[in-house]
Amino acid sequence: VNNQEWWRGAVIYQVYPRSFFDSNNDGIGDLSGVTKKMSYIASLGVDAIWLSPFFTSPMKDFGYDVSDYCDVDPIFGTLDDFDELIISAHNHGLKVMIDQVLNHSSDQHPWFIESRSSHDNSKADWYVWADAQPDGAAPNNWLSVFGGPAWHWDSRRRQYYLHNFLDSQPDLNFHNPNVVSSLLHTVEFWLKRGVDGFRLDTANYYYHDTELRNNPPKENVVEGSIGVRLDNPYAYQLHLYDKSRPENIAFLQRLRNLLDQYPNTTTVGEVGCDFSLKTMAAYTQGNDKLHMCYSFDLLTHDSSMKHIRNTMETIEAGLGDGWPCWSIGNHDVERVATRWGRNHHSIEKSKIYMVMLLSLRGSVCLYQGEELGLPEANLEFNQLVDPFGINFWPEFKGRDGCRTPIPWKNQPLGGFTESITPWLPLSNEQLPLAVKEQEDNRHSILHAYRDFLHLRRAHPELVHGSIHFLYNDDSTLVYTRSYNQKQLYIALNTSEQDKIIPIDLNLTPLILPEALKSGYIDHNAVVLPPFSSLIAYIS
Ligand code: TEU
Ligand code: CA
Predict the structure, then answer these.
(1) Please, are residues 537 and 488 in contact by the beta-carbon 8 Å criterion?
(2) Three-state secondary structure along 439-484?
(3) Alpha-carbon distance 42 to 227, whole Å?
(4) How confident is the model at residue 1 (pLDDT cuts 50, 70, 90)?
């Protein structure tokens, strides 16, 4: 594997800059804060960072509503701060990936301001405008992920515009070639500035059906990913026409052509839809579209090993030469220590899920704070700032609880800021899990992460090996990773019970990090005590 393929099997650490470290004490994390903490990130042993958006924005969706694709929002710093961040990351041996929110802009973007101003301006067709139906109703039944219709009436143009997310996030019209070339131009701006890759926000939403056909209803709706919550009407449609259109493939090829002019760069697309595993395959096969994709399949509430095995086997069967990327947490979903750990033994369970995530086949995104085993922060309704959460409270508490600032020290403001009014409060339950506390405790989950990432690097089977599943029950998973004639056996137990797995293999266990509980071999069986794992060479 050459350097050009650094992303295959890479571990990508997601930084949500608002909540990482506040360098100027205004209560909001910023780019200089990330630079100040670069040696912490490097100390984890990850390969790259992915920065959530830091572009100029009215912050209606905390940066996922961009009003200037080629500048830094003053809250986060300046372009010079960004250049410094890149230099520092590269000096630490870390690649830098940035978020690109191409599907929609802010309604404050000059493109949209011009587009809405008349029917015949030069950007009139840059967004998705449509007439009302004769009775004044919206053009069709499409819905916004964040609640309500996907259409917003504009009283100046006397037309509706499409927004798959907030009404302050109008969808760009990818069917217009000038839109596509302008967006590719902004992507190139960052390539020239030295970034190593992109995380593509909502990579399957770019194109809509130009006939604006109604989405059909969806049968058998089951609780699942963040988009499939039973309190959200969005879950009851099959999204055939508002996203995941076939035209997207040609766009992804153009994007790839651009990236191929900048050696060693990469992409990871976010794919959320009903056919996500199929879409991941379609977007990554053939080495001429995206490098990697991730789905929401491991971001659900289902932490059973059956679900994990099914997800992996489905993607392995359909992926061909495509390459997956997995994450079990991000800035949109309840923190995994709570979602999968619940309140019981959540740190012990999180350690096993870490071993799993870092030994499945694919690249990995780790969300800041996951390495600390942080639980979801408990916020009151009046502390919420996420409009998605405010819309659906109390059935859904929104995304603020996974976005509270990182506790660096066990003290009231967590060493995150000196401002007494951070943009979201520090979570009291998280303070005892602060970085400093865990550095001083050899058995902490932070040490488990560091040591395991080190072990992963030392064993190419874990990074590049093919995967084959041998056994599972609800809380036990056993599989192998094979690479270059060598084969590793991996057994995980996330339950409170001992698990005994008969074997007819000759196993030589690896020494696991001190902070992990390990299983052992007893005669013809692998014994897995509660919350333990075993990794062994098969000879
Ligand atoms: O998220 C897309 C998003 O909202 C999905 O979680 C969606 O629920 C799913 O595709 C439905 O099946 C991205 C960002 O991660 C998020 O923070 C932004 O708010 C959103 O796009 C809009 O830019
Ligand atoms: Ca700040």
Answers:
(1) yes
(2) HCCCCCHHHHHHHHHHHHHHCHHHHHCEEEEEEECCCEEEEEEEEC
(3) 33
(4) very low
**Residue burial 23-47, b: 16+ Cβ < 10 Å; e: rest:** beeebbbbbbbbbbbbebbbebbbb
Expressed as residue numbers, the domain containing 493 is: 466-538
pLDDT digits (tens, 9 = 90+) for 321-373: 999 999 999 999 999 999 999 878 999 999 999 999 999 999 999 999 999 99
Going by pLDDT thresholds of 50, 70 and 90, the confidence category of residue 234 is very high
Rg (CA), the chain: 23
List 518's β-bridge partners, or say none. 533
Residue 231 pLDDT: 85
Residue 243 has pLDDT above 80, yes or no: yes
Tokens 């030994």 belong to residue: 359
Mean pLDDT rounded to a whole number for the chain: 96
Residue 343 has what pLDDT? 74
Which ligand 1 atom sits nearest the alpha carbon of residue 204? 10
Same domain, residue pair 504 and 403: no
Q: Is 316 considered catalytic here?
A: no
Q: Which of 270, 297, 334, 400 is catalytic?
A: 270
Catalytic option among 154, 201, 242, 297: 201
In a domain, 162, yes or no: no
Q: Which two tokens stand for residue 223?
A: 């609780």
Give dist(CA 414, CA 53) in Å, integer: 23
Q: State yes or no: is 201 an active-site residue.
A: yes
| Average pLDDT estimate for 103-119 | 98
Please tell me whether residues 370 and 500 are part of one structural domain.
no
ipTM exceeding 0.85, yes/no? yes
Whether 361 and 496 map to the same domain: the answer is no
Total structural domains within the chain? 2
From the list 79, 88, 92, 96, the residue with the least C-alpha distance to 6 is 96
Identify which of 19, 50, 64 to mutate to test ligand 1's pocket (most ligand atoms within 8 A of the CB): 64
Instruction: Check if the beta carbon of residue 458 is closer than 8 Å to that of residue 451.
Output: no
Kindly list the protein residues whose Cβ atom lies closer than 6 A to any atom of ligand 1. 61, 64, 101, 145, 165, 201-202, 225-227, 272, 331-332
What is the arithmetic mean of pLDDT over 103-126? 98
| 470 and 513 part of one domain | yes
